[in-house]
Specification:
heterotrimer, A alpha+beta (about 650), B alpha/beta (about 180), C mainly alpha (about 550), A: about 650 residues, alpha+beta, four-stranded antiparallel β-sheet, about 60% helix, about 10% strand, C: about 550 residues, Serine Threonine Protein Phosphatase 5, Tetratricopeptide repeat, about 70% helix
Chain lengths: ~650, ~180, ~550
């Protein structure tokens, strides 16, 4: 049943279905014929099902090691552990592209099930059919995962130990959920531009899909950064690498969209801007795909790239971004309305939020592509590395955080919530005192102190807001706890930002590092702690041998805390050596040990770190993602009001 | 009106981006843009004066100087580098037209000698750059690298990677010929 | 160049071992690199974080374990120790490696856009927001009426709004049929409908068969190699066994062994063109398809002697391609095709290369009708025919011998020529002819002691084999001995032979004379001395 050929057939079938999925509903809308528009939904479901079967066939081919499929032969091996056989199906260009399409199909299906039938839905499904079509064509005509080999080779060639890693296997699907999820908002925006009706219900629908995609994207980026942290072996977690930037840009744009769509929902303001952000966010994820797969920019983590595929993606990019932006240019004018809010208002806060996020997206974009442009125009090659982004992105984000503390305390149209004044007073005074103390009493850099102060400012204002709004010291807390889910989600996500900043700052400012060459029995100081090196032991793994360093970690009082066992693995079959860092993760910080070259006679090189609070970086990201998901929850009774014009909401708080 | 024009701004930005990306992609595809190749910072500048122990006579030194009688090439090579073997025929041809000074980069002298015995010795003189210090001064980032230097000691051209037939014919030979004609 | 190299492989179908690249384990700075002074070290680390590892994807030299990164780290520290300040060091490295080495691009004309954009974006964005506010202040707030109008859905046509209106069944059926038909047609074009799925578990027997076949093949090759090696050890003078060894080594991808064997074979035959071109080809393969100078030299020599040698012609074309002399390559390969028999196995490959060269040279090839009708040989038959059979090889040597002999009879004083002839006869298994040639060689060069000794050795071996007339050999031996003793009467080896042949003749005293003399020249305690003493004792009895 799940033969590769059936999978191939289903993929082709999905391609044909998506063509029809565009044509029939379009004819239906043009002729105003409901019998034709009716087909949009079943066709999407058929396309999704065909795609799922196709992907299942591919996974099945990997599971049973069907080496008559070229992709399996070149990326799998009969001796691979089963989990990596399965994940290997998307650990390559062709398979990951199919996964992209699967997620498109998934979102299409969910969209059909969740939303009520309307003209907007039909149009959105049409646009999604177009995206699916483009990627199916890309897959089938340039990167076909079902190319066969006859005769089949006796075994595969994909036993690369570096690629056998659970973090590497899991973060792409998560990231794709984010990238592709943004396509729904994109399709909704185009449908909105076509109908010219960007209403409250449009915003409500869009907000759901944006929040979903945003949460997945946040989690995906966090997973990728965590993978780099433990796998690349030098303890960094963000490198401002083009591929990382490619995921950060859509995240920033999606964050802006997530906020501006609220303004559309509540106040019918920023309508055309929100449409633009929806188009931009998905466009940037296409740009990211383009970067990774075209080989245009070099990166530490990318697939074997092929410029010929780049041409195809470029055409997709031109169609999928150029046309909507042209449509936007024509139609956006009619969607713009005058504004009616005071300077101090929720609207202004969200405008500043979008302004900061868009500027920072732009900085990442410029920093990533400027070297390429310069090389084309002048032939000069320059490098834009972390120091550039530290100097530009970080300060802009700093400004953003200043406002991030204030914005949530404002109300729509005019003024601030009752808890604003005490909350801001509290956080402002504490922040200033803390900053002054640090400036005088610590040897930290001004940038470091600014970072700490901003984190304080944000944390205290969120805490103050919660405190003064919930007033746990007064009776009747139960009623006050019954806030909308969006409020709780927002608090959680914003507090996730605080946690993230704490981790990033603490691990950067208070890191301890020691690089030594030591012999057995040596004591190594690391901050207040001590490690004792008990030599190196040879161990034998399933398909590798290791040199494992034996380290014992003692706290400042000389109590044994734990053992650390960094490895250097040698895979004889592949003649590859890899290092495996030993990481002892605790809430208070990570101990990170890497074993380098050496021998019993000359001693071994060891690199040891203590990174305080570093895991908070990813906890923070997870909190943000969960916050986004909580905000999706909606009380059921509100759902009935979709078609009725709403009253201008007056937030009760 | 001005307001509606601003709505074209995103499209305009995208068109700029897309055209740069297209041109870059086409150039990469046609091989005109080489991702791995870096321009040398030293082009148009005087050679870094280099003095290295000679391979043929470890007591003597060879000196790469600011001015010489004729233009010449400086070629960084090593016995451990596979592409260096690949460019041996091209260097043999070049060696008949112009002086080549070899720099054995991070190589054991005996290995260098064996390499020359196996693949031919097109060099007029060879210096030993044991620790790669000379390479660092020249901005070398991998062997083989070949520099063309005018008789006034100005670096005119740098080629990183092996010289193959095409590069020899299209880049080096015409440049060398024009230099020699000028004399 | 790989294309032509592949062609070469096809002609000769000799396996090549692939080098496995080892991926270095990620490990950046080491303890040795660090400076003792913590303050300098901190500065070094700081600088390292701002310098790009030029050969890496996107890493600072602090993070990278590439050799170049290591060198740059050392350079930074060297300069720090010499007292340079941070800016000087950065400027120095910038001068050597360009702006590319700086992770933080310096502000310059080229990077003005890079640095100005963030500031401009902040200012313009801020400006737009402020402008927007101004406009808001001027325009009065919209009435609730306007707002509610905006939020309302426009009435949409009733038909469309009817949720779930079913499509017409006929349309649905037609559409499904068309979709499935179109999908099936496309799939027939793109897919491989005839290939069933082949899970590994169902292919156990096939794979074990394949594996055992491959194993057997390898064992066979290994066996052939060992046998050839043994043969060369047993008969180091036999050219045939060296050639055999070269082929066997090539099959196993033992490049060095192959080259050695060919070189030995070449030195045995002297100047044989066939072996020279084989050596040239092996050299080309060992240099990964580049025709290296030594190979070029050999090709030139071969073609000077025999302008029709196919292998040399092919390689010569390859060399021309490499130099960009496409026209010459075309001429070479065209000529090769012309002189090759119409069923020559290399024709397909040469034609392909010729086309390539012609394309590059911009020459239009005339396609003659018969060439297009030629059956395209399968790879298997090509490879089978590519190797010369032993008979063919023998034939080649025989032809060589006849030519050589004719020449030598006209110029008998060419000692080296006679020696070569002798070796050739050895290969052909004609020891008598070989011996005769060797004697002629020694006659031609009476002063060459080594040569005389070689003749004596052959004579002695022949005598021991006992298949030759003793008397004629004895006469020959005496003749040679006279010549040799005239050169050096003290040479130990010669003294041994003199004694040997004297004893064979029955002249015990003469034999004793030479051997006692020999005993004086060698150390008393040596094994040879002991053996010689034993022989002398036998003589005395």
């Amino acid at each position: 049943m799940l033969s590769p050929e059936f999978g191939h057939f289903c993929l082709v079938l999905a391609l044909v279905v998506s063509v029809v999925q565009i044509i029939l509903p379009m004819a239906g809308i043009l002729r105003d014929d409901a019998r034709l528009t009716y087909f949009a939904e079943p066709l999407q479901l058929i396309a999704s099902a065909a795609i799922f079967i196709s992907f299942a066939s591919l996974v099945y081919a990997f599971v049973v090691s069907d080496f008559s499929v070229q992709l399996v032969a070149s990326h799998s091996h009969s001796l691979k552990p089963m989990i990596y056989k399965v994940t290997g199906s998307w650990g390559n260009h062709e398979g990951s592209l199919l996964l992209w399409i699967v997620i498109l199909g998934l979102f299409g299906m969910l969209f059909v099930f969740r939303e009520a039938t309307s003209r907007l839905k039909t149009l959105t499904l049409m646009v999604m059919g177009g995206i699916t079509l483009a990627f199916l064509a890309f897959s089938l005509f340039t990167s076909n995962p079902f190319t066969r080999l006859s005769p089949a080779p006796p075994d595969g060639r994909g036993l690369n130990p570096v690629l056998q890693d659970i973090g590497l296997a899991l973060h792409p699907p998560m990231l794709y959920l984010g990238y592709v999820g943004l396509s729904v908002a994109f399709a909704l925006a185009i449908a909105g531009l076509i109908t010219g009706q960007v209403t409250r219900s449009w915003a409500r629908i869009t907000r759901f899909w944006v929040a979903l995609a945003w949460s997945a994207l946040t989690a995906g980026i966090a997973l990728g950064s965590w993978w780099a942290y433990y796998e690349l072996g030098w303890g960094g977690w963000w490198f401002w690498d083009p591929v990382e930037n490619a995921s950060l840009m859509p995240w920033l744009a999606a964050t802006a969209l997530l906020h501006s769509v609220i303004v559309v929902e509540k106040r019918q303001q920023m309508v055309s801007w929100t449409l633009l952000m929806a188009i931009t966010a998905f466009s940037l994820s296409l740009v990211g795909t383009f970067i990774v797969r075209s080989g245009l920019l070099t990166s530490v983590h990318s697939f074997a790239s092929d410029p010929a595929r780049g041409i195809f993606i470029l055409f997709i990019l031109l169609g999928a971004v150029g046309l909507p932006l042209f449509l936007y240019a024509l139609r956006a004018g009619s969607l713009t309305k005058g504004s009616d809010y005071a300077l101090l208002s929720r609207e202004t806060g969200l405008i500043i939020n979008n302004y900061i996020l868009v500027v920072s997206t732009f900085i990442v974009l410029i920093g990533t592509f400027y070297p390429l442009a310069l090389e084309l125009f002048t032939g000069a090659k320059i490098t834009v590395g972390a120091p550039y982004f530290d100097a530009t992105f970080n300060p802009v984000m700093g400004i953003g955080i200043v406002f991030m503390a204030i914005g949530p305390l404002t109300v729509w149209r005019r003024g601030m919530v009752g808890s604003a004044r005490p909350a801001l007073l509290l956080s402002g005074s504490v922040t200033i005192i803390a900053a002054v103390i640090l400036l005088v009493g610590s040897g930290l850099s001004v940038a470091g102190i600014a970072g700490i102060a901003l984190t304080f400012w944000l944390a205290l204002s969120i805490g103050g807001d919660m405190l003064f709004r919930l007033r746990p010291w007064q009776a009747g807390i139960g009623a006050r706890l019954r806030l909308p889910a969006t409020q709780w989600g927002m608090w959680l996500a914003h507090f996730g930002m605080v946690i993230f900043l704490t981790g990033a700052l603490a691990s950067a400012l208070f890191e301890q590092e020691n690089v030594v060459r030591v012999s057995k029995g040596a004591e190594i100081a690391l901050g207040h702690e001590t490690l004792i090196f008990d030599g190196v032991e040879e161990r034998i793994g399933p398909n590798y041998v290791t040199e494992t360093a034996l380290l014992r970690l003692f706290d400042r009082d000389g109590n044994l805390k734990d053992g650390l066992y960094p490895e250097k693995r040698f895979y004889p079959a592949e003649r590859q050596t890899t290092t495996e860092a030993a990481i002892r993760t605790r809430l208070s910080g990570d101990h990170y040990a890497v074993l380098g070259d050496g021998s019993a006679e000359s001693g071994y090189t060891l690199r040891l770190y203590h990174k305080p609070l570093v895991s908070w970086i990813w906890f923070g990201a997870v909190m943000m993602a969960i916050g986004g998901l909580i905000a999706l929850y909606r009380r059921p009774q509100k759902a009935q009001r979709v078609m009725q014009p709403e009253q201008v909401p007056k937030e009760a708080e | 009106m001005a307001r509606s024009l601003t709505h074209f701004l995103p499209l305009l930005l995208f068109v700029c981006f897309a055209s740069i990306a297209s041109v870059a992609l086409i150039m990469t595809l046609s091989g005109e843009r080489k991702l791995s190749e870096l321009p040398s910072a030293l082009i148009g500048k005087p050679v870094p004066v280099t003095e290295l122990p000679s391979l043929s006579n470890p007591q003597a030194f060879i000196k790469i100087e600011a001015t010489t009688a004729t233009p010449y090439l400086v070629n960084f090579f090593a016995s451990w580098c596979a592409p260096c073997r690949a460019e041996a025929p091209a260097l043999a041809i070049l060696g008949k037209q112009i002086d080549i000074i070899g720099v054995a980069y991070k190589d054991k002298p005996e290995d260098s000698r064996k390499f020359l015995a196996d693949f031919g010795n097109p060099y007029r003189a060879i210096g030993i750059d044991n620790d790669g210090a000379a390479g660092l001064n020249w901005g070398v980032y991998g062997v083989p690298e070949t520099y063309l230097i005018s008789k006034d000691g100005i670096i005119l051209k740098r080629h990183a990677g092996p010289i193959d037939g095409d590069i020899l014919r299209d880049e080096f030979l015409p440049l060398i010929r024009s230099l020699q004609d000028r004399e | 160049m790989m294309r032509y190299f592949n062609a070469l492989i096809l002609i000769l179908l000799v396996g090549m071992s692939l080098q496995t690249l080892s991926v270095p384990a990620a490990f950046a700075i080491t303890a040795e690199e660090q400076l003792a002074d913590p303050e300098l070290e901190a500065r070094a680390r700081d600088l390292s974080k701002q310098l790009r590892c030029l050969v890496c994807q996107n890493q600072s030299i602090d993070d990278s374990d590439a050799d170049l990164a290591k060198d740059l780290r050392a350079e930074v520290r060297k300069q720090l120790l010499s007292g340079a300040d941070d800016q000087t060091i950065m400027a120095d490295l910038q001068e050597k490696y360009g702006d590319y080495v700086l992770l933080n691009p310096p502000v310059s004309v080229a990077t003005i856009g890079l640095w100005a954009t963030p500031i401009l974006a902040l200012l313009i964005g801020g400006g737009l927001i402020v402008l927007n506010r101004r406009r808001v202040k001027q325009s009065p707030p919209q009435s609730a009426q306007d707002l509610s109008e905006n939020t309302a859905e426009k009435p949409v046509s009733v038909k469309t709004m009817h949720a779930g209106t079913p499509g017409t069944p006929i349309l649905a059926i037609t559409a499904s049929f068309c979709i499935i038909a179109a999908g099936a047609i496309y799939w027939f074009v793109l897919g491989s409908p005839s290939l069933p799925s082949q899970p590994l578990s169902q292919r156990a027997s096939e794979i074990s068969q394949d594996a055992s076949q491959a194993e057997a093949l390898l064992a066979e090759k290994q066996k052939a190699y060992t046998a050839a090696k043994d043969a060369t050890l047993r008969a180091p003078e036999n050219i045939g066994s060296w050639l055999e060894l070269a082929l066997a080594a090539a099959e196993l991808g033992r490049m060095d062994d192959e080259l050695n064997a060919l070189r030995t074979a070449l030195s045995l035959t002297g100047e044989d063109a066939g072996i020279k071109s084989m050596l040239a080809e092996a050299l080309t393969r060992s240099a990964e398809g580049q025709v290296i100078p030594e190979a070029r030299q050999l090709i030139a020599e071969v073609l000077a002697e025999n302008g029709r040698e196919p292998r040399a012609l092919f390689l010569s074309g390859l060399a021309a391609m490499e130099d960009g002399a496409y026209k010459r390559a075309v001429d070479n390969w065209r000529y090769l095709i012309e002189i090759s028999p119409s069923d020559a196995p290399w024709l397909v490959v040469v034609r392909k290369n010729l086309q390539e060269a012609a394309d590059r040279a911009g020459i239009e090839l005339k396609t003659d009708s018969d060439s297009s009708n030629l059956p395209v040989l399968s790879q298997e038959s090509l490879s089978a025919a590519a190797e010369m059979s032993p008979e063919e090889r023998l034939e080649m040597i025989e032809g060589m011998v006849v030519r050589l002999r004719e020449r030598l009879e006209n110029a008998p004083s060419d000692s080296a020529g006679w020696q070569r002839l002798a070796r050739a006869y050895t290969v052909l298994g004609q020891p008598e002819e070989a011996l005769k040639a060797l004697v002629s060689a020694s006659e031609a060069a009476p002063g060459d002691l080594k040569l005389q000794l070689a003749v004596l050795e052959q004579l002695m071996l022949a005598g021991q084999a006992g298949d030759r007339s003793q008397t004629s050999d004895q006469a020959l031996a005496n003749e040679v001995l006279v010549r040799a003793l005239a050169v050096n009467a003290e040479h130990p080896e010669l003294l041994f032979f003199a004694g040997h042949f004297a004893r064979q003749e029955g002249d015990k005293d003469k034999a004793r004379f030479y051997w006692v003399k020999l005993l004086d020249t060698i150390p008393q305690t040596s094994e040879t001395a002991r053996l010689l003493q034993a022989e002398l004792d036998k003589l005395a009895r």
